[in-house]
Design goal:
Layout lengths: L5 H8 L17 E6 L4 E8 L7 H13 L6 E8 L2 H11 L18 E7 L6 H14 L4 E5 L7 H4 L9 E2 L2 E2 L2 E2 L5 E4 H4 L11 H13 L8 E5 L6 H9 L4 E6 L3 H16 L4 E7 L3 E2 L5 E2 L6 H13 L5 E5 L3 H9 L3 H4 L4 H14 L19
Parallel strand pairs: 2-3, 4-10, 4-11, 5-9, 5-10, 11-12, 12-15
Antiparallel strand pairs: 1-2, 6-7, 8-9, 13-14
Length: 381
């Protein structure tokens, strides 16, 4: 059997993606050296972005598997090094596209990422659970999905995804979103705090800066869908979102009860005031299925329909109910355990309804709200 060439080894390494950046390690200049002995033994040195890279075991496994698969390779000797400050600066330039100042990529006219803000009028309606499960359902469709946990005070998304104690890797001042086993990438203010139990007590300007940082200082790569879990109500973050991401479309989450529906209408109206389109309403905790097969409307009925009807009348376009998610203990248990129901119990009625909602959203074309169409009048009439 012939000895493999350096070119063959390089081609194999080009199939290995950095697990955080989601791009080939060869493109990121992470492959420092390749040596091939006549015996077929291959020595490879790969440079990690930082010494404490949390996913170095994944890189070790993937690199070893890729090189071993090349014909003629008899063994792999992998060495993991660390980038110098100059090399990290070069990586940062590659990721930022050579731009000196970072910008929010999803707000650019050419962005093809669908941005959905999940909003509610009040807390306790299951908005974060809906966000997390929609993200996982979309990822199961083969989409690249990211979540921004924009609920600065009540950040719960990392725990629901099973990465509550994870911390993002930084390349200088560029932040990598935290990957999850489901393939969804996530960033949360909870991941940027020194301690998990530290309280966030910020006012308007700081909240705005936090949102901008999670959108512009984070390397998201090429996403198909970005979901933002907004804090309840119509406060600073909702206003900042409208200013920085006018193209974001809003999904309003409510429960059937009157008290939740009334304030949910305000959340939808706020989105319209910020020139964002409300794409639909999700009614959570719609009913409870009893052991005998009958259903009980624990929180009343009609809330989702009321919100959709009211917003349709106010906006002059159709706002429909996207789905009605039943009250299911598995939905709560999955969130507490860091295993959302669409993964842990995919045949449950709540999981099936969430998948249906996700399919409806991912199948939509991107709206024109907030987009610059590049049209210039050629003359005056």
């Amino acid at each position: 059997m012939s000895t493999p060439s350096v070119e063959q080894i390089t081609a194999a390494l080009a199939t290995v993606n950095d697990p955080e950046i989601k791009r080939p390690i060869t493109d990121l200049n992470m492959v420092d050296s390749i040596t091939v002995a006549e015996s077929g033994e291959v020595a490879v040195t790969v440079l990690l972005t930082v010494a404490g890279c949390p996913l170095k075991e994944t890189i070790t496994r993937d690199v070893t598997a890729a090189v071993t698969a090349v014909a003629g390779v008899t063994g792999v000797d992998l060495t993991l090094g660390v980038m110098t400050p100059e090399q990290r600066a070069g990586l940062k330039e590659v990721l930022s596209g050579g731009k000196a100042e970072r910008e929010i990529p999803f707000a650019q006219p050419g962005s093809l990422t669908k941005v959905y803000a999940i909003a509610s009028g009040k807390g306790g309606v299951g908005k974060s659970s809906v966000t997390v499960n929609l993200a996982l359902a979309m990822a199961k469709q083969g989409l690249k999905v990211g979540i921004v946990d924009a609920d600065i005070y009540g950040h719960s998304v990392p725990a629901m995804l099973g990465v509550a104690d994870a911390r993002p890797t930084q390349v200088d001042d560029l932040i990598m979103p935290v990957p999850t086993p489901s393939g969804v990438s996530v960033i949360s203010i909870g991941m940027l705090k020194p301690r998990r139990d530290q309280v966030v007590a910020w006012r308007g300007p700081m909240l705005d800066r936090a949102l901008v940082q999670m959108l512009s200082d984070v390397y998201w790569g090429d996403l198909d869908v970005l979901l933002l879990d907004l804090p309840p109500g119509t406060g600073d973050v909702a206003i900042s979102l409208g200013q920085h991401l006018p193209n974001a479309e809003v999904v309003v989450v409510t429960t059937p009860q009157e008290a939740a529906a009334e304030v949910a209408e305000r959340a939808g109206t706020m989105a319209s005031m910020m020139h964002q389109r409300v794409v639909g309403v999700v009614e959570n905790m719609s009913f409870l299925t009893l052991p005998d097969g009958s259903t009980m409307e624990v929180f009343g009925s009609g809330g989702g329909d009321r919100v959709a009807e009211t917003l349709s009348q106010r906006f002059g376009y159709d706002v429909r109910v996207l789905g009605r998610i039943p009250l299911d203990p598995s939905l709560r248990e999955g969130g507490d355990a860091g295993k959302p129901i669409v993964d842990s119990d995919p045949t449950a009625a709540a999981a099936l309804e969430l998948v249906k909602i996700a399919e409806g959203l991912s199948g939509r074309g991107r709206g024109l709200a907030g987009m610059q169409l590049g049209l210039t009048p050629s003359s005056k009439f």
